[in-house]
Amino acid sequence: MKQTPLRDTHHALGAKMVDFGGWEMPVQYGPILDEARCVRERAGLFDLGHMGRVQVNGEDAVAYLDRLATNHVAKIPTNSIRYSLFCKEDGGPIDDLLVYKGDDHVYLVVNASNTDVVLEWMRAHTGGFDVEIDDQTATTTMIALQGPKALEVLKQVTTDCDLDALGYYKFTFGTVCGVPNTRISRTGYTGENGFEVYFANEHAQRVWDGIREAGESAGVQPIGLGARDTLRLEAGMPLYGHEIDREHDPIQAGLAFGVSFKEEKGDWIGRDALAKIAEAPTRALVGFTTDGKRVPRQGYALMRGDEHLGDVCSGAVSPTLDTNIGTGYVPVELAVPGTELEMDIRGKRQTVKLVEQPFYSRTRKKS
User: Fold this and answer.
1) Mean pLDDT (whole number) for 258-285
2) pTM for the whole thing?
3) Domain map of the chain by residue range?
4) Options 3.40.140.10, 3.30.390.10, 3.10.129.10, 3.30.1360.120; which CATH number does 7-49+138-233 get?
C-alpha cells in the first residue's frame, strides 16, 4: 500500500489503519462518533495525503479542462474553487473533483481511489491542447483542519495572508508553521468551517505537529476517515462509489450545480447524454432517517410492498442528529420528504422516512 509522510505518526497515535484506495490510512484513533462530535463542536485534524493532486499548466489549460469537466472552468474567478466531474460519453462519472483556478494554472483535487483512472483519462485527451499534466500526489501533502474553531487555530500558525478575508471556496498562499508558499483553501468535506493546506512532503511532520500544538487548548484532535464519512453524509456530500459512480449520474444525484450546459462553454465529454437525462430524470437521490435499531448500509434494498425501488448508497449513526441516516435512489415521483418506505435487511423490514438534505447544516439549527 502507498503511505503518506505521516504514516508513522498515525501508528504512534494508536490509529487503526486500513487500506483506502490503495493507501494505508487511519480510519479512527478512538470511537468514531466521538471524533465526529469533536469536529462539530471544536475542530479536527485530517491527513488527506491520499487524495490526488494534479496541476495543469500550459496556454490551453482552461480550454482543455472545459473539454473534460462538467462545470465551466473559464468562468471560475481567479483564486476560486468549483465542484465538477469528469464523465464518459454516456454521462457516467469517472470521478468528482474540486477545480482550483489560478492565474497561471489550474489545480485539481480528486479521489484517492480514482487518481490513476483520472490521470489516464486526462492524458488520453490532451491531443490538440498545449498543456502539461503535473501529478503532485506523491510529492506533496494535504492536511485539513475542520470545525468551528478551525479559523482561530490556523491563524495562530499562519502569516503572509489574511485568513479572515478568505471566503468559502476560495484559496490563497501563505506561510503555515514557517513553510512559505503553502496553498491554503477554505472548503471541506464535513459541513463545517474549515481549511486545507498543501505543501511539500518534507514539511509534513512540522505542519502536522504545529497545528496540533496550536489547537491543543481548543480541544483539536486527529480524526480518521470513519468520522469523515459520517460527517460528509450528515452534510449531504456525495462519495464516489456510493452516491455517484459509473451507473449513477450527477443530474439524478442532485449535483446539477456542478454541470454547465451553457453554449458559451462549448461541447464537453458527456454533455449530450447528461442533457437528455436532465430533460427527463427517472430517479433521484434521497436522504432518509430511520428510528429502527438497524443502521442503513450500502446495498440494502429500499422497498414499497413487494416493489424494489432502489438501494441504499450510504448509511451511518448520526451523532449530531441522534438517529440513523442514509441515502438511496428511488423513482423521481416518490422523492418527496415525508414519504415512508421500507429498508430490507436480509428479509427483515425497517421503516424509513424521506427527509430533505442535507441532514445537517451549520447555518441552521439541527432538525
Assistant:
1) 98
2) 0.97
3) 7-49+138-233, 282-367
4) 3.30.1360.120
